[in-house]
Specification:
The chain is of the alpha/beta class. It has seven helices and six strands. It has a single domain, classed as Rossmann fold (3-Layer(aba) Sandwich), CATH 3.40.50.1820.
Length: 185
């Protein structure tokens, strides 16, 4: 059975944005979907998120698909970097791999991006990778999403008018992402 792990970002939850919709859609296709609740903003640190991931998501295998939004995408890079073997696929939405030069968010994401990423290992373990980014994201510059795609050698999909690809920009569903995931099943 294919397992899908959806990782929310700062201030997020399993009930926010397009996560419940995606879980329902993939569940109907026979996937086991887990959307962990990470501590945020209080307690938002890499070590805390890794602990929750290990407890709620379990081990990743060649039948695992990872999905991450915003800080959840940066977190996913750290998860992939630590894997012993590749996952099936990785989907990054509104992601980044460095500080945002935003005093409100940088303290919350610093532990995720402070150390250099082992891009070679991440490329080896990410499986099929796709990066989605809104061309008008007010929090994460387009170049940061492009950077992830370049480092991974992944497909980059710019979403016109997509903003931060969250509910505030109308993303309570995300058909483009669902279609890409279906293509890997």
């Amino acid at each position: 059975m294919i397992g899908v792990i959806v990782n929310h970002g700062t201030g997020g939850s399993p009930q926010s944005n397009w996560f419940p919709w995606l879980a329902a859609e993939l569940g109907a296709l026979g996937c086991r979907v887990v959307v962990p609740q990470y501590p945020t903003p209080e307690g938002q640190r890499l070590d805390n998120w890794l602990e929750v991931f290990e407890r709620e998501a379990g081990p990743c295998t060649s039948k695992t698909i990872l999905v991450g939004h915003s800080a959840g995408a940066a977190f996913m890079l750290r998860v992939i970097e630590r894997l012993a073997a590749p996952v099936k696929a990785s989907f990054f939405t509104a992601g980044f791999a460095r500080l945002l030069n935003n005093p409100e968010f940088d303290p919350l994401i610093e532990s995720f991006v402070a150390e250099p990423f082992n891009w070679e290992r991440i490329r080896q373990n990410a499986g099929q990778a796709v990066v989605y980014h809104g061309d008008n994201d007010p929090y994460v510059p387009l170049a940061l999403g492009q950077e992830i795609a370049e480092e991974l050698g992944a497909q980059f999909v710019m979403v016109p008018g997509g903003g931060h690809l969250n509910a505030a920009f109308g993303f309570t569903t995300f058909d483009l992402l669902l279609c890409s995931i279906k293509d890997t099943l």
